[in-house]
Task: structure prediction
Amino acid sequence: MSTIHNLQAIEILDSRGRPTLEVTCELAGGARASAQVPSGASTGQAEAMELRDGDPGRHSGMGCRKAVLSVSVPIANALRGQTAKQSDVDNTLIALDGTANKARLGANAILGVSIAVARASALQRGVPFYRYLAEMIGHSPKSLPRMTINLFSGGKHAGGQVPVQDVLLVPASATTIDQGLTMVCAVYKAAAAAMMDNHSARLLTADEGGLAPPFADVEAMLDDTVAAIAAAGLRPGDDMSIAMDIAASHFYDDGRYLIGTEKCTAPEMIERIERWVRDYPIVSVEDPLAENDWKHWPAMRAALGDLAITVGDDLLCTNPARIQRAIDTNSCNALLLKVNQIGTLTEAAESLRLARTAQWSVTISARSGETEDNWLADLAVGWGADQIKVGSVTQSERLAKYNRLMTIEEESRLPVVNWPQSR
Result:
């Protein structure tokens, strides 16, 4: 196995115009590869911490020069000459940082190094990145993930015109990535064409490319989704299903959930979401309750039953300890895996292992602040994700991942995972 010759980083801008990092790893054998680091807007309290500069005179304090320095000095010095074995590299990064939440070196710096080393190692061996990632966890890819693609956005992604963060399309009858994208593009165009008629709204998009008209309420958001599916000549629930990212932590205060002008208790919120799932072709519900409302998550999971998967994002933060707690309490049955929530590939792989041991579904997800790097597609295929959540079918930082999925599909001829099953 080759050793690490050098590491370096530069500050770049993400899709929201905020700084992030690009890290480059050069191995002694000559392989050289880079990785760009995403960043979230809807973040859980238990997420690993990005290192930001805090200088109000530059990028409103969001600069990443300190994280760049973390890579170029302490991390590079510690890893130079070390073998590029992923677990060894990641464990060195964890020990060097020495904090529970990556606060010293920065989760952004650590993740960039972790991905760049893996990519350089795959290049050195001459294997596709998704196959290298699969080997890392002892997996052999057998399918491609089912896409869940943003149609409408609210919450922190779109100025909060409705509390719910995203309504997503799931091309349920598609048998290929290409067919799924074709179907979703048709629905997106139908929804965009109806925006002026329905909402007197111009074609404006949110952080992840979703449409963001001023809906009167969440039901209107869901009604427009079903109408757009039908307008595209598809059958709601058969050809095209719906996923929801509720992101409930962001409208939870003092034990109540603020839906419009109504303050709901947790049992009332559970009843409302169960009604949405029964009234609309919803097959996945993410973060239906607040991240620290552990008391009520088991009841939420029980209410949804087999109608829809109950996905933990802010609740879990790709953190093995929180995932184990959710398993023990039967709080959800699906993990939204975001590598930058935990910091290294090795730690994320442990989160994946726990979820799979519990027979959970796994969605591998991008962030609201993305780059045109496409490593997420390789990760989703290599780690056998059931779903991939990237954003909408606009904006190059989203399309880069979908285009990579189509390339992998062409090379591998793998089928799309058989989910969701008809209700």
